[in-house]
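Support request from a user on the community tier.

User writes: "When I paste my structure tokens into the form, the page sometimes reloads and wipes my input. The last time it worked, I copied everything first. Here is what I submitted, just in case something in the input itself triggers the reload:"
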């Protein structure tokens, strides 16, 4: 019973924006980012802390940033997005090298690290900001997204409810949301919710087929 209550407490505080003690800057891994010829993918599937941490382990991914998209207000705050009144989803903007990892592979991982069959919900995270959404930036990405959904649907018992729409505007989230898992690995939500998704991403990477030259 005590363990169940503890778990419930962790889940109840899911992605609430409560800040944990961040690691000192010099303790964070430094990354060299070459944005030449980089492509962009924008995806939402629950709390952005989860997707950000999972995609950061993928070879060919140059940078992952937490943000907001799909809504009606410019430069929304976390509190405004959480109210559900702005229509935004929590998303990640992924900058990647298409010569190393394909957009389709990023989508393949997307289906493994969130449930695309639940409307406005991922586990204990409930609200339209947690909806499953793919925001394409080109007609090719739209076609890839639709083909990916059709291919993966037989793997799910329920219909996929992922929204596929054009990216109109993207707004970066507050600094304390960025690299949250990397800075706060011992935070309760990170241990219970984020870490298992990172493990799934690491297993996915091991089976990833390199992009053909």
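"...and here is what came back when it finally went through:"
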């Amino acid at each position: 019973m005590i363990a169940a209550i503890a778990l419930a407490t962790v889940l109840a505080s899911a992605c609430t924006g409560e800040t944990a003690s961040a690691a000192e800057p010099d303790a964070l891994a430094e990354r060299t980012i070459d944005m030449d010829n980089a492509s962009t993918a924008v995806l939402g599937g629950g709390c952005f802390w989860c997707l950000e941490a999972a995609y950061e382990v993928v070879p060919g991914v140059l940078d992952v940033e937490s943000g907001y998209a799909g809504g009606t207000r410019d430069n929304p705050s976390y509190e405004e997005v959480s109210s559900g009144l702005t229509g935004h989803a929590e998303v990640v903007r992924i900058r990647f090298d298409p010569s190393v990892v394909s957009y389709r592979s990023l989508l393949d991982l997307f289906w493994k690290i969130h449930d695309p069959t639940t409307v406005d919900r991922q586990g204990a995270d409930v609200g339209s900001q947690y909806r499953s959404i793919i925001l394409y930036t080109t007609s090719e990405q739209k076609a890839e997204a639709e083909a990916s959904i059709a291919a993966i649907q037989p793997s799910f018992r329920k219909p996929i409810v992922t929204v596929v729409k054009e990216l109109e505007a993207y707004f970066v989230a507050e600094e304390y949301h960025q690299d949250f898992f990397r800075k706060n690995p011992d935070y309760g939500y990170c241990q219970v919710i984020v870490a298992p998704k990172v493990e799934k991403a690491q297993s996915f990477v091991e089976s990833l087929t390199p992009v053909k030259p």
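Agent notes: The reload is a front-end session timeout and is unrelated to the input. Residues 1-12, 21-32 have pLDDT under 50 and may be disordered. DSSP finds seven helices and eight strands in the chain. Escalated to web team.
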